[in-house]
Structures are given as C-alpha cells and as structure tokens.
Amino acid sequence: MNNLAGKAAEDYICLYNPIMENVTLNANIPITLTVIGSGDAFGSGGRLTTCFHVKTDSHQFLIDCGVTSLTGLKQNGIKQEDIDTILITHFHGDHYGGLPFFLLEAAVYSRTKPITIISPPGARKRIEDLLELLYPSTKVLERLIVDFKEYKPYESVHTDILTVQAFPVIHTPAALPHGLRITVGNKIISYSGDTEWTPNLIQLSHDADLFICECNFYKLKIKGHLDYETLKQNLSSLSFKKILLTHLDTEVLNNISDVDLDCAADGMVVDL
Ligand SMILES: [Zn+2]
Questions:
Q1: What spacing in Å lies between the alpha carbon of 146 and ligand 1's midpoint?
Q2: pLDDT tens digit string along 66-81?
Q3: Exposed/middle/buried for 88, CB within 10 Å: 0-12, 13-18, 19+?
Q4: Low-confidence ranges of the chain (pLDDT < 50)
Q5: Contact call for residues 144 and 99 (beta carbons, < 8 A)
Q6: Distance between Cα 86 and ligand 1 center (Å)
Q7: What is the pLDDT of residues 222-264, one digit of tens each?
Q8: Pairwise CA distance, residues 99 & 88, whole Å
Q9: Distance 196 CA to ligand 1 centre (A)
Q10: pTM for the structure as a whole
Q11: What is the DSSP letter of 49?
C-alpha cells in the first residue's frame, strides 16, 4: 500500500484501460513461436488454416487449431502428445475445426496426459457434436482427460503458466469471436482472432512482445475482417514490439510486395 511506484503503475493501468487486468510478468524464459497455419478458411496460397504453436522450457500450447492443424504440426515435427493447452479464439472451422482430429489421435494412441482447452463458452458440446458427426459412436472425450476452461468477454483465465485475457472483437457474433492477450513468462503475445477494425485491438496489442493480427484482405472491405489499408490507417494507435500479419487471402497475397509489415508464413519460427 505504501509502494508509491506500484500505486502509480496501478493508476496508469486503470486510467489507460479500466478493463485490462494488471497481469504480473514472471521470469524470463525462452519462448519459441512456430506458425503452423497462416491462411484463410480456403487454403489461399496453399497455406494451412490458423494455428500457432508456442513452446517454453516446460510447456507447449496452440493458439487456435484450424482444421489442418494436425497435419501442420507434423510437418513441423511437433507431436500431439507434447501439447499441454489449446486456446481457441472463436468457433469457426478454420480456427477450431482441427480439434476433433487432434483429440481423436490422442484417444486412439491412449494419451494419458491431461489437456486443457481454453475457449469461449460451449466448446465441449460443440466438439462432442463434431466428433459424433465425423466419427459416429467413436468414444473420444470419454477416453481423455480434457479440462475445458471458458472465458467471457474481458475476463481472464489462468493456468499454471498462462494468463489469457479475452477481448470481444467484431466478427460473426454466433462464433463468439475474441482476441486473446496471452501472458507467458515475462512476454505478452496478442492475437486479434478474426475481426474487422475495432478499438479493442488497441488494448489487446498494448506493448505486446508479439502482436499477431489478422489481415484477410489488402484493400477489400469485407464485414468481419481487416484489410491492410484499414490497418495502416489505424497503425499509429497500436503499440507492439513486433507484428505478424496472418489469415491472408488471395487478394492480399497478390499484393504482398506492397505490404511493409511482416507477414506470417507457414513454418516461420519467431523467438521471443
Ligand atoms: Zn472466423
């Protein structure tokens, strides 16, 4: 209470953003992010659907698990059984449609290690329904230890190693779209999820070590998605140490030589 510097920092955070939780940064640990999938829902440019793999000295997690993720993980030499946690931004197939296959492999190969899935509310029911449609009467979740953790807008979910803060974004409302601000060790990885421009991206990306931002289009204005032209117009309001554009469709890929921000590519490795 007598720590004036600490109080000043608290006040700053409250003034800056009354909804952003003051997350304690922990030890400096090596963190490696591998882009598993940087494409849109349609495999534009031959890219896989959204998935990022993050590895620390003691933990591995995925940010989104699009339908091609299990293939992408294997292309990068990453094993399903080594993944501890999966974060999901919203319920579109190119962001969570890989979960049935991931979990099916885990069940078939008798995975005993628990796995945590952090998502908007309702993941268990959706995954049960998907599994029943894709692999009828195949018991999957019953054979695994899955801890479903749900976040709500502006809330945080904590695990032993992660704090995940969820910000609502502007995309198909029924898919419960969120951007995620992930604290791991002393680093912050922010990911927009799928969204058109929203001021919530300012809070989401604030001082992030890595801000992964969807940039579905170059200058096409399509509801629920961001384009490079709009992102550039708002760039001065964002603060981050490094940005990677992702969820790239054919139009932006055709103009990629005119994009002067770093773009994700499948297999790209970023050390944080
Ligand atoms: Zn989406």
A1: 24
A2: 999 999 999 999 999 9
A3: buried
A4: 1-18
A5: no
A6: 17
A7: 999 999 999 999 999 999 999 999 999 999 999 999 999 999 9
A8: 10
A9: 11
A10: 0.91
A11: P
**In sequence order, which residues have a C-beta less than 8 Å from that of residue 47 and are 6 or more positions away?**
37, 38, 39, 40, 248, 265, 266
Centre of ligand 1 to C-alpha 119, Å, is 14
Cα 139 to ligand 1 centroid, rounded to whole Å: 28
Q: Which residues of 152-180 are buried (b: 16+ CB within 10 A; e: fewer)?
A: eebebbebebbbbbbbbbbbeeebbbbbb
The pair phi, psi for residue 213, each rounded to 5°, is -125, 130
CB-based contacts of 131, cutoff 8 Å, min separation 6: 100, 103, 104, 138, 140, 141
Homologous superfamily (CATH) of 27-262 is: Ribonuclease Z/Hydroxyacylglutathione hydrolase-like (3.60.15.10)
Ligand 1 centroid vs 252 CA: distance in angstroms? Answer: 17
Give 162's Cβ-side CA count (13 Å radius).
Answer: 29
CA of 249 to the centre of ligand 1 (A): 13
DSSP 156-216: EEE-SSEEEEEEE-SS-GGG--EEEEEEETTEEEEE--S-S--THHHHHHTTBSEEEEE--
